[in-house]
Amino acid sequence: MELGSVSFAGKTGIITGAAQGIGKAIAKGFVQMGGKAVIVDINPETAAKTCEELGNAVYYTVDLGNPDEVVRVFQQIVEEQGRVEVLINNAGIVNTSDFDKLTLAEWNRVIAVDLTAVFLTSQVLFRHMEQIGGGRIVNVASIAGKVGGGYLGTTAYAAAKAGVISLTKSIAKAGSSKNIYCNSLCPAYTKTPLVSILTGEKEQKVLEAMSLHRAAAPEEVANGVLFLASDAASFIQGENLNCDGGMLMDG
Fold first, then answer.
1. Which one of 23, 78, 107, 204 is CB 3.0 to 4.6 Å from 90, fit for a cystine?
2. Which pLDDT tens digit goes with each residue over 26-70?
3. Against a cut of 0.70, is the pTM above it?
4. Strands ordered across the beta sheet of 135-140
């Protein structure tokens, strides 16, 4: 068997939350490696600018917290793009309310965007990938899903990301006989707009917990995601990859 390469030549990939941050870095890498990026984001203005910057990219606007809209838009993407080989569920929101102050509305919103939407997008693309002979799904989780929250993105976020890790394994088991791969990646502290409120002592505590003692650049996380989405990861299935600067070092 020949060595695989991280290439997306001739492939189309959907990346959620790709107008900025980690998602944008993923989309940029996907295009640079020969693919067509389908950017899914709630902000059409930012998404349009990103598409213009990347070149071989299009965007669709969707509120991932609205289940009906998620299914409708993703079915539309499949119909209009014709063939989609890669899905990268990157979008997410955080809520930093303490456990005893977290409201049900806050909980429901985070779970809807960070977990339920991943289930729905994956299901639509899973059915499509069955028809085209296979594909790859990569879910961006978080180390918060392993440790139960922490300095940013507490109870609801951690619970949702733990669900994403488990959901990834379920999708992988369902897809193995159909040439559908599903893996996840857990970033730690990454310099993006999502964590812009993490400053001062809180930021220092996070950095001290990481062996590399620095935050990740979005491109460093994107590299791991793109590897899992590529044919180079041909014998990796249902796995979760830490991209955390040596914070956990778990098995």
1. 23
2. 999 999 999 999 999 999 999 999 999 999 999 999 999 999 999
3. yes
4. 57-61, 36-41, 12-16, 86-89, 135-140, 180-187, 240-243
